[in-house]
Each structure stands twice: as C-alpha cells, then as structure tokens.
Amino acid sequence: xxxxxxxxxxxxxxxxxxxxxxxxxxxxxxxxxxxxxxxxxxxxxxxxxxxxxxxxxxxxxxxxxxxxxxxxxxxxxxxxxxxxxxxxxxxxxxxxxxxxxxxxxxxxxxxxxxxxxxxxxxxxxxxxxxxxxxxxxxxxxxxxxxxxxxxxxxxxxxxxxxxxxxxxxxxxxxxxxxxxxxxxxxxxxxxxxxxxxxxxxxxxxxxxxxxxxxxxxxxxxxxxxxxxxxxxxxxxxxxxxxxxxxxxxxxxxxxxxxxxxxxxxxxxxxxxxxxxxxxxxxxxxxxxxxxxxxxxxxxxxxxxxxxxxxxxxxxxxxxxxxxxxxxxxxxxxxxxxxxxxxxxxxxxxxxxxxxxxxxxxxxxxxxxxxxxxxxxxxxxxxxxxxxxxxxxxxxx
Length: 396
Prior knowledge:
Residues 67-94, 307-348 form a coiled coil. By secondary structure, this protein is mostly helical.
C-alpha cells in the first residue's frame, strides 16, 4: 500500500459536525453541534474587535458584554478540547490494538504463514484512524491558539481598565481644582502600577533573550539538516524521509519560537503604552500643583515666566503635530500605493508579495501610531491651555 504524508491524504477542511459524526461520536445536542463549528472565526472575531476598540481609544470594561464574550469563548473552547481529548483517547485504544495486530502479522509473514493482504488491510485501518486523529488534533491546536489569543485580550482589558481608572481619578481631581499629594493614596497607586508594568517589561526582556538563544539553536539545527538533505536530493529512502521529517519539525519549532517572541513584544508594547498614560497623569497632577502654588503665592513675575514657558510648549506641540500630520499623510499614501501594487499579484504568493504585505502592514501600523501620538498631543495642548487660562486669570 502506498503511504502518503497525513497532510497530503487528509481532507483539507472538514466541518466539525461531519468529522465527529464520521468518527462515531455520541449523538450531540444542538448546542454541542454549534460549539463544534466555526470556533476559530469566533475567537478571531473577538480578538479583532478588542484590538479595533483599543486602536480607537475606546475603553473596554470588565463588566462589558465584549469582556463576557471573551471569557465565555475561552471556557467553551476548553470544553470542546476536553471532548476532543476523550475522543482521541477512544480512537487511540483501537489504534493500539491494530498496531499490536500488525506486529503479529509481520512476524507471521516473515515465517511465511500469513496472507500479505491482511497486513495491507490492517495498515489501511491504522491509516484511517491516523487521519481522524490528525483532524481532531488540528482542531485542538487551533483551539489552544485561540485560547491563548483570547486570554491575552482578557489581560489587556484588565490592565487597560486599571490604568484608565487611575488616570481618570487624577484628571477629575485636577478638573475640580484639587491637588494630588505625592504621598497620598492615589499617587502611591500610580507609582505601584508603573512599577508593575516596568517589572513585567523586564521579565519579558529576559524571556526574549532566552527564547532568542533557543531560536538560534533551532535555526542552526535546521541549517544542518538542510545541508544533509541537499546531499540526498532525489532519494526517498528511510534516511532521507527521517531527515525531511526532522526538517519539518525544526521549521515548525522555529515558527513557534518566532511567534513566542512576537507575543512577548506585543505585551511589552502594551506595557509601554500604559506606562505612558500613567506617567502623563503623574506629570499632570505635578504640573497642576506647581501652577496652583504659583497662583497662591501671588508672584506675578514668576507667573509671567511660567506663561511664557507654557506658550513655548504649546507652540512646540503644534509644530510637532504638524510634522506628524505630514508623516501620517505619507503613510496613508503608501498604503494606497502598496495596495495597488499587491493587486497586480492577486493569484500569486511569492517572496515579493510577502515583502509588499509586510510593507503595507508597517505603513498601516505607523499611521495608527501617528494618530495615537496626535491624540496625546491634543490632550497635552488642552491641558496646557487650561493652565494658561488659570494663570492669566490670576494675573488679571
């Protein structure tokens, strides 16, 4: 019997209801069947929704329907994986028996006392079970990846909510003309939150260093296997097949390490963004305290110096904003140009199209970063203008 790699012989896409029915799974309820269909798009859709809201600056609360959907989807995927694990174990029991039978048949064939067609039939049954188990394992892997992505969004919402809560309290006190003492509970909470974010950032940096070393080791091993295979091109013996299997395993391991590095860096970027929000809040209440102290002192010459300083900062912020608007416009044009270029390769996947897509995503991200920085500048300008008005009113 001709053997084909599982990826070549298994159906490319099977609906989960069809898959479980074919495998002889117990009858499922309507709710269970719904659970076994289209779970990856559901998880991806939730992740995309959270990321879109984060990019827009709209906060997501832990008591929101979206947050509830995230946690519910995690639990649902875990329950589905439990079902898959039970089914795989059931199939594996049958497979182990067939493997044992095949060993007996091989021994009998060696002694000339067995029909070779029996061995072919046994191997075919094992192959079919391998197909079914492979399909289930593929679903299980996708579920694990989805669970990880959803959990990261849950953590993102939790971190965002804490930071927004603290910064909102600061700005509310400033709006009410109240000071935030450096040794008061709110300032201490801000300091502790910043400290946690920095500690996490450092922990991720350490993990990145370790993972990069592991990746270098994997890449080195992959290159060595690749060289060995080059000397065996055109061959399909046991040694060449083993090398190809090792090469595929190494390439997937490198892919996992790269994905892990990406996840670490995404978390670091989140922490930096949140730390910036808290630091701006701390600077705001310190600046407010300084302005209030200056107004209370009644020192008009110093007020005039501070007014001139604030005016310079407002002017610098405006120039910076103008520069960012120009950069944003350039990125927007690049998005249009690269998109048009990609349309010329609609039916192709080549290194060139990969580079173009990376360029497109980079332009979209940079445009997003420009918008975020412009939003911060507008907030700072509004704050400076308010403090300026307070000083001018005190002077008059």
